[in-house]
Amino acid sequence: MTADAGQDRRSVASYGEVLDVVDVGRVRLTRRYGCIRRDQFEIVTKEPFPSAFRDWIASRGELRERPTFYVIEAPGAFQLTVAPRAGRAILMPRLATDLTWQAQTAREIAEVLDGMLNHGSCLANTRQAG
Amino acid sequence: MAIDERVIVETVTGMGLAGNEEGLIPAFGLYLTNHYADFYNRISFGVLGALVRENPELTEDAVALLTEAAHVCAFHTFGGIMSSVEWDALVQPMIESREDWVRGMMAVVNAFGWGRFRVAELLPDERLVVELRDSYESSGYLESYPRTDGPRCFLANGGMAGLMNLVYQGDITRRPALTEELYREVFSDPRSFRSRERLCAAKGDSHCEFVVERMQG
Amino acid sequence: MGVGKELVQVVEFVRGRARGSAVVELARLNLLVGRALSRNAESIPDDPELVARAWVCAREILEHERKAKR
Q1: Cα angle value B74/B79/B84 (rounded, 5°)
Q2: Which residues cross the membrane (chain B) (predicted)?
Q3: Is B206 on the interface with C (CB under 8 A)?
């Protein structure tokens, strides 16, 4: 997903409309229009998210865990809600970030997740999000 | 596993839903707003009063617009919740039938504290009867106005129709994109669901009650 | 001045062209005009001023709907 992907579509898009879908290895990343200043990113895999992913993303912010899902709150940056067993997460960026950063961050998270799915639990990609 | 309302309510209330520095609550894939029920009530009932003050015969029309606002709200809010990651993780594993989508949503709504909703009757694809106690709309109304002769829970009433339309008309179980196009398609269908508030605490009933049925087309 | 003929035309114009719920668009018409046209048009005199205002409101509603649709 490039930073300007969906740029043409977003000028006429309405809330929830899909702007772009890309596969990052085994991870499907869907970008939806939120408003003029932020999009929403869905991260989906066919298998459950590895627990190493939670450990990695937890280092980016405050982790709130419920029995079946968890939420990472990266202050001023984003909120990521993860249903690990369902293999699904939603990235909701903060308004303080710009669209380019939002897309890059979503891509980066997808790449790290794909790396983990391909190589067990090792941190295949250590670039930071948030 | 059937819908376990206790687990859903405990989990959702334990999520620590609160406004962030933007004044929003990012949850269920939505940006929920954090504001007082009294604030909503004042706007809602104030709009009704302003629209019909000059001509009471327009009450029906003002209510139609407030109900439309509730339909739009239900479509995006309930639809968003039922498409969310949280739903996938928490409610979806309990779902055994299409009717469980209705019951699951009702449990989430109860966790939000909008009142105590209870499904009294649910005939698949046909009819829903919901009882509501401690509705913030009816209690808010009685705090500021005398007892009325008509129901006043416009948001809850439209919300119940929205829920049935999402489940049986728009087939939310297939996760459609919640676009304006779909909204029109679902709610403009002559056989789509509409709700009527048969009982309302604002008019002296012990609780509020909504009956949701398909229009006759 | 006739009764209800022209106003009925306005109501039918909105009902026939509404892309969403006709009930909602007719409620908008009634509120903008300040009269319950969709229910009583047949019995309201076709006062030229009222008819003109009703047409303006009807076009405004449908135009707004068309714009929102884009």
Answers
A1: 135
A2: none
A3: no
Query: Which candidate from A40, A68, A95 shows the least CB-CB separation from B29?
Result: A40
pLDDT score recorded for residue A6: 59
End-to-end distance of chain C based on CA atoms, in angstroms?
A: 40
Comparing CA positions, the residue from B165, B150, B178, B132 lying closest to residue B45 is B150
Give chain B's mean pLDDT: 94
CA distance C40 to C21: 19
Tokens of B39: 């604030």
A59: left (phi over 0), alpha (psi -120 to 50) or beta: alpha
Q: CB distance C24–B180 less than 8 Å?
A: no
Gyration radius of chain C over CA positions: 11
Q: Which ipTM was obtained for this model?
A: 0.89
Q: Tens digits of per-residue pLDDT, A6-44? A: 567 777 888 888 999 999 999 999 999 988 999 999 999
Cβ–Cβ < 8 Å for A83, B11: no
Average model confidence (pLDDT) for chain A? 88
Cβ neighbours of residue C25 under 8 Å, at least 6 residues apart? C14, C15, C18, C61, C62, C65
Q: Which domain holds residue B119?
A: 5-214
**β-pairing verdict for A62-65 and A70-74:** antiparallel
**What is the number of domains present in chain B?**
1
Is A17 touching B (CB cutoff 8 A)? Answer: yes
Total of domains in chain C: 1
Is C69 within 8 Å of chain B by CB? Answer: yes
- Interchain CB distance below 8 Å, A81 and B86: yes
Mutual orientation of helices B136-144 and B154-164 as an angle, nearest 10°?
160
Write out the residue range of the structural domain in which residue C29 sits.
5-69
What's the burial of A28, exposed, middle or buried (CB within 10 Å: 0-12/13-18/19+)? middle
Contacts of B64 in chain C (CB under 8 A): 23-24, 27
CATH number at B135 reads 3.30.1380.20
d(CA B117, CA A107): 41
